[in-house]
Design brief:
The protein has 415 residues and is an alpha/beta fold. Helices cover 43% and strands 17% of the residues.
C-alpha cells in the first residue's frame, strides 16, 4: 500500500513538473532588442525616440503584452558611432537572444548592420533611414519614416522653386551617407527640371565655420539653395546666412536640414529659421491630426520633462511609437514571432498608427509617402511654446497636407 501511495505521489509530481515547464516557458518575456544613440551627435533624437518606444512597451504590457507574455526592451547605446552597431546587434541576437529587432536611429548607424540582417534573414524595423534597402532588397526590412525616396522627401523644394520661376540652384551638403544620398536625389530632380547648377559644395562633417561657403553661394546668385546637413551644422549655416545673407536672387532656401526638427535646435535658432523651407515628419497643423497623435504627444510631453528629452517630440517619437504599434498588430494577427510570417503580414496589410495608416512597398518603404514640407514663419527667439501652435510651421507641400502657400523670395519670407 505504501509503495502504491509513493508511486501516486511520484506520478503527480511528474505531471506537475511536466505542466510547470511549458508554463514557465510561456511566461518568458518577448524580448525586443535595439541599439540607439543616447550619446553623441544623434543622442538627442535617440533619447526622444527611445522614450516613445518605452511608452509603447508600457502600453502594450498594460494590455497583457504580446502572445500573453510581457514585452521586455533590451537597449544599448550605439554612441552615434556606426562602428559599434554590428557588435551591438550580434550581442542582441547571440547573447541576449532577442525575439524582435528595432534598428538604430538614422541611416549612418543602421547601414553597417544591414548585411547581418540579410545574412540571418531577420525582420528589422528601421528608424528614419533613407533608401538603405534599395540595393540590398531584403524582404524583411520596414522603415517607419514617412518618405520613400528623394522626390518624396524634398521634391517639394524644387516644385515651389519651379513655380517661382527658378532657373539655377546651389548645393551645400555634408559628406555623410544620408546627406549625400539626399543631395544626389536633389541633383537628379534639378536636372529633370532643367535647372543649372551654379554652386556645388560638399564639406566634412563637423564643420563649424560656413562663412566662406555662404559668401560663395551669395556670389553665385542661385534661385534655389539646397542644403543637406546635421544639427550643429544647421546652426552654423543659418547663423552665417543671418550675418552675411544669400542675396535677393534666392527664392527658396532649405531642403534637408536635420536639426530644424528638434526642439533644442529650434529654440537656439529662433527667428533665424524664418523663411526656411525644410522637410519634417510632423507639424501641429490641422491636416496632421491623426487619431491618437494628440493624446500621445500630451503624454509624451509630461514624460519628456521628467526624463529631460526633447520637450515637443514631433520629429521622431510618434513614428517610434508607431513601430511598436505595427509590431503589436502583426504579432497579434499572426500569433507568431517568426520573421517570415510577420514580414508577409506587414507587406500585405495596412497598419493603423498614430501617424496615420501605413502600407509598405516591396522594399519596406512607404507605399504612399507623406512628408510635410514646412516653412517657418513668425518665429520669435527663446520661446518653445510657440511651436505647439499652428501657423509657425506652415505646411507648403504636398497638396494633401498643405496649410498655406510658400512665401517667396527667401528674403521676403524672413521678415
Amino acid at each position: 500500500m505504501k509503495t502504491f501511495v509513493r508511486w501516486c505521489f511520484s506520478l503527480l509530481g511528474a505531471i506537475a513538473l511536466a505542466i510547470s515547464i511549458p508554463s514557465a516557458n510561456a511566461q518568458q518575456p518577448v524580448k525586443i532588442g535595439m541599439g540607439i544613440s543616447q550619446t553623441g551627435g544623434l543622442g538627442s533624437g535617440g533619447k526622444a525616440a527611445l522614450l516613445a518606444i518605452r511608452m509603447w512597451v508600457e502600453d502594450v504590457n498594460a494590455k497583457g503584452g504580446l502572445l500573453g507574455r510581457k514585452v521586455e526592451l533590451v537597449v544599448y547605446d550605439d554612441q552615434s558611432n556606426p562602428a559599434t552597431t554590428p557588435g551591438i546587434y550580434t550581442k542582441l541576437l547571440d547573447i541576449d537572444k532577442v525575439d524582435l529587432l528595432i534598428g538604430p536611429y538614422a541611416s549612418v548607424p543602421t547601414a553597417p548592420i544591414m548585411p547581418l540582417i540579410k545574412q540571418r534573414d531577420l525582420l528589422l524595423m528601421t528608424n528614419f533611414t533613407f533608401e538603405l534597402n534599395r540595393d540590398l532588397k531584403h524582404d524583411k526590412v520596414f522603415n517607419n519614416a514617412p518618405w520613400t525616396d528623394a522626390v518624396s522627401l524634398i521634391g517639394g523644394v524644387f516644385r515651389i522653386g519651379e513655380q517661382a520661376g527658378a532657373q539655377t540652384v546651389a548645393f551645400l551638403a555634408a559628406d555623410q551617407e544620408f546627406t549625400q544620398n539626399v543631395t544626389n536625389g536633389a541633383k537628379n530632380i534639378a536636372k529633370k527640371q532643367g535647372l543649372r547648377t551654379v554652386y556645388d559644395q560638399t564639406y566634412p562633417p563637423g564643420t563649424v565655420d560656413f562663412s566662406a561657403m555662404i559668401r560663395a553661394v551669395r556670389a553665385a546668385k542661385p534661385d534655389i539653395v539646397f542644403v543637406a546637413c546635421y544639427p550643429n551644422e544647421a546652426v552654423g549655416i543659418l547663423r552665417g546666412v543671418n550675418e552675411i545673407g544669400v542675396g535677393e536672387s534666392v527664392k527658396v532656401f532649405g531642403g534637408a536640414m536635420i536639426g530644424l526638427q528638434f526642439t533644442p535646435v529650434m529654440e537656439t535658432l529662433g527667428s533665424l529659421m524664418n523663411g526656411v523651407v525644410n522637410f519634417t515628419s510632423y507639424a501641429p497643423e490641422k491636416t496632421m491630426e491623426f487619431p491618437g497623435v494628440k493624446d500621445f504627444l500630451a503624454r509624451y510631453a509630461k514624460r519628456a520633462v521628467e526624463e529631460k528629452v526633447d520637450p515637443l517630440g514631433y520629429y521622431l517619437p510618434p513614428f517610434s511609437y508607431a513601430i511598436g504599434q505595427m509590431l503589436e498588430q502583426s504579432v497579434n494577427a499572426t500569433k507568431s514571432l517568426d520573421p517570415k510570417i510577420l514580414a508577409d503580414y506587414l507587406h500585405k496589410n495596412e497598419m493603423q498608427t498614430i501617424v496615420g495608416a501605413i502600407r509598405f512597398n516591396e522594399l519596406g518603404e512607404r507605399l504612399t509617402p507623406s512628408v510635410p514640407l514646412v516653412q517657418f514663419r513668425g518665429i520669435i527667439d527663446k520661446n518653445i511654446e510657440q511651436f505647439r501652435n499652428p501657423g509657425k510651421q506652415v505646411i507648403v507641400y504636398p497638396p494633401d497636407l498643405k496649410t498655406g502657400d510658400a512665401i517667396v523670395p527667401f528674403e521676403k519670407a524672413r521678415k
